[in-house]
Amino acid sequence: MKQRGAQRRGGSLSPIRKGRLHERVLNAIRDAIYSGHFAPGEALRELRLAGELQVSQGTIREALLRLERTGLVERTSQKETRVVQLSRKQQRDRVELRAILEGIAAVRAAEHMTPADFAELRQLGHEIVRAQAADDLFEVSQADLRFHRFIWRHAQNDALCQVLEMLSAPMFAYVSLQRARDLSRWVGMPHEAVTRALQQGDADQIKSAVASHIERSFEQFLHEGRSESEPVGRETREPRGPHARP
């Protein structure tokens, strides 16, 4: 497995300040996974995390248990906690299910959303475009997640929200710099189509727009030529010359 030593993608972990400590710890670890600081399949050591965040191991353990329930990390037979690493088929299965369920959530959300909500959703789409323009690839991923969570939340179905979070978490965790560059070329446009479909309120159009966006996202997300059994999160290492970037 690829070593993630002194040089890591994404921002480094910083000590956690007091005040809603458990929530802050969970968010810090989750954001570190989303940013690529921890790779898919990488072990998350409680002692090391406790030292970096300057909190107790018990606090780290609770955060990891909660992340396990979201599907972002998993416990191995060796009693280690690792970032989830799915095969291409496993990822495709989740994406197909997410496309169906998010379409249902979007139809329900359209029934509950007010004009102010639609304006806010459109603004969230604009945040994605601004992140693209700034070449802020981590923010592209995070803005995309905020857009989808806004729709899930307005479906007003907590169980559906939880399932969609679990299905979506590994995909956002697999964003690498190379994949994010591919994603950032087009990701803003389909969001506008989703917003427009929700505002028009036709259930079939909403489901079609959501499914098209999610499926295109998945296809763009994958590298061409991977085998069906190769984990999505594992990158092909290119030869490193004297001028290669770290």
Task: Describe it.
The two termini are 17 Å apart. β1 and β2 (81-83) form a beta hairpin. The chain has two domains: 21-83, Orthogonal Bundle (Arc Repressor Mutant, subunit A), CATH 1.10.10.10; 88-221, GntR ligand-binding domain-like (Four Helix Bundle (Hemerythrin (Met), subunit A)). The chain is mainly alpha-helical. Helices cover 63% and strands 2% of the residues. A two-stranded antiparallel sheet has the order 1-2. The protein has helices at 21-34, 46-53, 57-70, 88-112, 115-133, 137-154, 158-173, 177-184, 188-200, 203-221, and strands at 73-75, 81-83.
Descriptive tags:
two-stranded antiparallel ribbon; Four Helix Bundle (Hemerythrin (Met), subunit A); Arc Repressor Mutant, subunit A; single chain; mainly alpha; disordered N terminus; disordered C terminus; 246 residues
